[in-house]
Amino acid sequence: MTDSRYLKRTVVKHEIESKYLNETRRLRIYLPPGYNELLSYPVVYCQDGEEFFNFGRIATHANRLILDEDIEPFIIVGVEVNTKVRTQEYAPFGSRFEAYVSCFTEEIIPYVENNYPVRRSPEERILAGDSLGGSVSLHIALKRKDLFSKIITLSGAFYIPSQEIIAQETNLGSLSLYMVVGLQEREYQTDTGIYDFVELNRKTKELLEKRGAKVVYFEKVGQHLWGFWQQELPAALSYFLGSSGS
Question: pTM of the prediction?
Answer without folding.
Answer: 0.95
